[in-house]
Design brief:
With about 525 residues, this protein is mainly beta. The protein has three domains: about 5-235, outer membrane lipoprotein receptor (LolB), chain A (Clam); about 240-380, Beta Barrel (Cathepsin D, subunit A, domain 1); about 390-515, Beta Barrel (Cathepsin D, subunit A, domain 1), CATH 2.40.70.10. The chain is about 10% helix and about 45% strand. It has eight helices and 36 strands. The chain has a 13-stranded antiparallel β-sheet, with helices on one face. Strand 6 (about 105) and strand 7 form a beta hairpin. It is globular, with a radius of gyration of 24 Å.
Length: about 525
């Protein structure tokens, strides 16, 4: 799986009021008193209509005092759109929002996909926090602590349909000092509330905060209450990249023992690529190939996270990428020096064969991709006219908020996991040490590796991997300690996926798995 190191966070989250107000539960009197103190401190609640609309400008400044992100948040009640601009990344943008029907995100090229699953639950909780919408029913006092010489009370607040939030409240003022979203869960995140602002006299909103142990600070630099915002303002912007769909006819791909190989023409030059659903940031060119085709440099350099270690990348722009008679235009891509960066590991992109790169999210985000691995073909369709009613196989609602499709699966019949389908990983399953030490996975070790740092720690065999009616037995699996694998997240690689014909429908958040042998 390929991930950018920058944390992209959408601050204004739309939520349903109904989802927040659970059926009455016996509550803790002390917790109720503290929440009442907080409501008096801020002077408003989500449901009282104080802020019918909000337009907010926000900056993220890192520890060195450099502005890394500027955001425009637009809200109509519970609906919103956030546009995030990155000054150090050639002022590229991405977006996130809620139309009233679906949560969505748009990537650096403007392709929009829905948000489901655990991230949606997390955003509900964050929304409740930032928009003074946390319920009081069921709240309990957990403990008293001392922070910076002052007494703080910690209140546990369950959020119906989502997770929970633990609030550290200053009993002297009612201000929230810290808020832990999803405590103990895979999305556990601590918000350190640094200040409040008053867009309306006596009505306070969170003015600045810090996340976890990161040194940078998010600050609202401008807050405009009850301004004119239309429903059209909350929909995604037009993508900067675009598809010209000219053919849905299947074209050849190659399934090797470890890879899916596809051919594409970039700015008039033919190349050979690995089809990698784990390339979550888009399309990644080998730097030598990017230079060969004249991909324009955007003078943006940084690091990306991989299964091995952080690796230097740069942003480029290409005019056209043609596959199967269909053309993707005006595309921002990444360039990586695979030949040197992974010379001692043969990173899953190149295998010593000097492939020209990885084709991932940049292909799937704006198109329907149908892979017939049995026939060795792939077809690309227009999502605007694609009818999935005739698709064969197991239909799945997928979580693609991280750029890689993920579904709930069960390991060994008892451990619920979030499984990322990574066609660029030749192994069956890769998981983090957390699955053993936190969630008590037991397996017979047959190979030991490095004891620390990056890389493989141990491999073995799982009894089974279950996805609805699909049961995969005697599963090879490897534990790997990396920055992109933690908690109950696992990677499910090509050794599993090669047994299916697959239709990827990222624009609608769906995926279809049809077993090759039924």
């Amino acid at each position: 799986m390929w991930r950018m190191s920058a944390r992209l966070f959408a601050a204004a989250i739309a939520i349903s009021t109904i989802a927040l107000w659970a059926a009455p539960v016996q509550a803790d009197d002390q917790a109720q008193a503290l929440l009442a103190k907080h409501r008096a401190f801020v002077g408003w609640q989500l449901a009282d209509g104080t802020f019918k609309t909000l337009r907010l400008e926000r900056e993220y400044v890192n520890q060195k005092g450099i502005v890394m992100e500027r955001s425009l948040e637009q809200r109509i009640g519970l609906l919103y759109r956030n546009t995030n601009t990155y000054p150090k990344r050639a002022n590229t943008t991405d977006e996130a929002g809620f139309t009233g029907n679906v949560f969505w995100r748009s990537d650096i090229n403007g392709f929009t996909t829905p948000i489901y699953g655990d991230l949606a639950k997390y955003r509900v909780c964050v929304a409740a926090l930032l928009n003074e919408g946390l319920p009081s029913d069921g709240a309990t006092l957990l403990r008293s602590v001392t922070e910076d010489g002052r007494s703080i009370e910690v209140v546990h607040v369950p959020v119906r349909g989502a997770d929970a939030v633990d609030l550290s409240i200053d009993p002297a003022t009612g201000a929230i000092v810290t808020a832990v979203v999803d405590p103990g869960g895979d999305y556990e995140t601590t918000f350190h509330i640094l200040s409040y602002a008053e867009p309306i006299p006596t009505k306070k909103v969170i003015g600045s905060y810090r996340i976890d142990d990161e040194g940078g600070i998010f600050t609202y630099t401008k807050i405009e209450p009850n301004v004119d915002i239309s429903g059209a303002d909350l929909h995604p912007s037009t993508p900067t990249a675009s598809w010209a769909f000219a053919s849905s006819k299947p074209f050849p791909i190659e399934l090797t023992p470890t890879r899916i190989i596809v051919h594409a023409t970039v700015d008039g030059t033919k190349g050979t690529f690995i089809l990698d659903t784990g390339a979550s940031e888009g399309i990644i060119l080998n730097k030598s190939f990017a230079d060969k085709v004249g991909a324009r440099e955007l003078n943006v350099h940084g690091n990306t996270l991989t299964l091995y270690e952080p690796t230097p990348i740069e942003l480029r722009k290409v005019d056209t990428i043609e596959m199967g008679g269909n053309t993707l235009s005006n595309m921002i891509v990444e360039a990586v020096d695979f030949n040197n960066a992974f010379a001692d590991k043969d990173y899953r992109g190149l295998d010593g064969k000097n492939y020209d790169g990885l084709i991932g999210y940049g292909l799937f985000a704006g198109a329907i991709v149908r892979m017939d691995l049995g026939a060795g073909t792939m077809a690309i369709d227009d999502p605007g006219s694609f009818d999935s009613s005739g698709e064969r196989g197991l239909p799945l609602l997928v979580d693609i908020a991280d750029g890689t499709p993920a579904v709930p699966m069960t390991v060994d019949g008892s451990i619920a996991v979030k499984a990322y389908f990574d066609s660029g990983d030749p192994d069956t399953v890769i998981f983090s040490p957390d699955l053993i030490f936190k969630y008590h996975l037991s397996m017979g070790t047959k190979l030991e590796g490095a004891a620390g740092g990056y890389g493989m720690i141990a491999c073995g065999t799982l009894d089974k991997l279950t996805l609805g009616p699909i049961v995969y037995t005697a599963v090879d699996a490897c534990e790997r300690k990396t920055d992109v694998m933690s908690g109950r997240n696992i990677l499910v690689g090509l050794d599993f996926l090669r047994h299916f014909n697959i239709t990827f429908d990222y624009p609608h958040g769906r995926l279809f798995l049809q077993p090759l042998h039924q």
